[in-house]
Amino acid sequence: MSTSIRQTARTTVTLLAVEAKTAWRSKRLLILAAVFVLLGFAGPLAAKLTPAILQSAPGGAQLARLIPEPDSLDSWAQFYKSMTQLGIYMPAIILSGMVSHDVSSGALVNLVAKGLPRPTVIAAKYLSALVQWALSITLAFSITWGYTLYYFPDGHGPHPLTALAPLLAFGFFFMAALVLGSALARSNHAALLTAVIVQVALMALNTLDRVKRYNPVSLLSGSMPLLKGDEDLCRLAPAFLVSLVAAAACLTFSALILSRKRL
Amino acid sequence: MKALEIHDLVKHYQGKRVLHGLNLELEPGEIYGLVGPNGAGKTTTMRIILGLDHADSGSVLIAGQQVHFGSAAANRHVGFLSDVPAFYDYLTAEEYLSACGSIAGTPASAISGQVQEVTGIVGLHSARKRLIRGFSRGMRQRLGIAQALLGSPKLLICDEPTSALDPKGRHDFLTLLDGLRGSMTVLLSTHILSDMERLCDRVGFLNRGRLVEEGSPETLESAYAQPRLRIGFAGADQAEMALPLAAEALQRQARQYARDAETLHPRPGAGRTGSEINLPYSGPYEQAAGEVLRILLSARLTPISFEQVSPNLDDVFMEVVG
Question: A26 to chain B: which residues are within 8 Å by CB?
Answer without folding.
Answer: 90
